[in-house]
């Protein structure tokens, strides 16, 4: 994996950063790296996530899911960090097992999915670190009932990943369900390389060892200089640009298979760094499609964006047939991959020319190893950014506020946050 910072330099784009600025920042990267290493050694909350490449036991995950012989589908019931990591992996990789996610409580969508599945050959993968998240538990109760209605023994088809205690752990014990534990010290949005993200991938038959190997390769490159670590290079430059007003970060992979990766990145970046009035708002875009919609804004709108362009350098390709239409002759003999690459390079050049900094991230292939590299690197980048910005990367009090309010509204306890909902101002125009 490599990160190319050329288009954030002030020599490539006005409003970029100078090499001197990066070198000065590098001294702070060394301090931040030192703090991160101490956190990892002590397995402190959050920092522990960066130890996962060697702490996660892929055999234990494979063993735990081995009782599900030849499933047609796996439905992961979870939300946020308990769904997006697994979804990123299974959406990016091909498998004969269809992977679905119930990570919302939209009744129509839930019903539509359940109606479409052969529940007798579907594995239900319920994931919740806390074991208390309302959306996840409600969806699971609905799935349970759908299975019972279809004459399927839900306990036979259910797999649980949760903490050592909580409602879900009690349920797993009561029904003797196969289960895995969420490792200590790993917040949901940093859990893709643990049991949380890898169980669904294992059920789909993906090579989870290779995912961890890719992650380990990035882990091995963490060092006290941003010039030696692609992960730190990305984290440090994102921070430096945010300090200069680039308060939005458009994650724009040029691969359909990485579309869900942008969603995962959005949670990682938003929940980790959006604190104390600071942060960089993640935007989700897809190349080349969004060149024809959002790019206008990125190039000519407010100067508040970093654009992150991601691509794989090797992929399957499709030749573009020759045509006798004169105006299209230039396309014939070339390929869709070449066209996609030309679009990618044109976009980064056009952004730079308009004074809009952008970073190029490349992996060799969208395969298990490449995904492991990319996901670990983004996590380490995020942790480094959090250190440089001096925010508490691993908490999410603003999200917890909403969770308590919703629970209070549903009669799940006495939460003062629910009162604020009742006191809502109204200015209704009909
Ligand atoms: O895994 P769970 O405990 O069910 O939590 C699922 C999600 O809940 C909250 O919304 C948190 O802010 C997320 O970080 C977390 O990933």
UniProtKB/TrEMBL annotation:
Catalysed reactions, semicolon-separated: alpha-D-glucose 6-phosphate = beta-D-fructose 6-phosphate
SUPFAM superfamilies linked to this entry: SIS domain (SSF53697)
InterPro entries in UniProt: G6P_Isomerase, Phosphoglucose_isomerase_CS, SIS_dom_sf, SIS_PGI_1, SIS_PGI_2
EC number(s) per entry: 5.3.1.9
Database matches in CDD domains: SIS_PGI_1, SIS_PGI_2
Protein's UniProt keywords contain Isomerase: yes
PROSITE patterns: P_GLUCOSE_ISOMERASE_1 (PS00765), P_GLUCOSE_ISOMERASE_3 (PS51463)
Organism: Haloferax mediterranei (strain ATCC 33500 / DSM 1411 / JCM 8866 / NBRC 14739 / NCIMB 2177 / R-4) (Halobacterium mediterranei)
GO biological process terms held by the UniProt record: gluconeogenesis; glucose 6-phosphate metabolic process; glycolytic process
Pathway annotation from the record: Carbohydrate degradation; glycolysis; D-glyceraldehyde 3-phosphate and glycerone phosphate from D-glucose: step 2/4; Carbohydrate biosynthesis; gluconeogenesis
Family: Belongs to the GPI family.
Protein name as catalogued: Probable glucose-6-phosphate isomerase
Keywords, sorted A to Z: Cytoplasm, Gluconeogenesis, Glycolysis, Isomerase
HAMAP family: G6P_isomerase
Domain of life: Archaea
Known function: Catalyzes the reversible isomerization of glucose-6-phosphate to fructose-6-phosphate.
GO cellular component, one term: cytosol
Compartments it resides in: Cytoplasm
Transmembrane segments: none
Principal EC category: isomerase
Single Gene Ontology MF annotation: monosaccharide binding
Active-site residues annotated for this sequence: 271, 292, 403
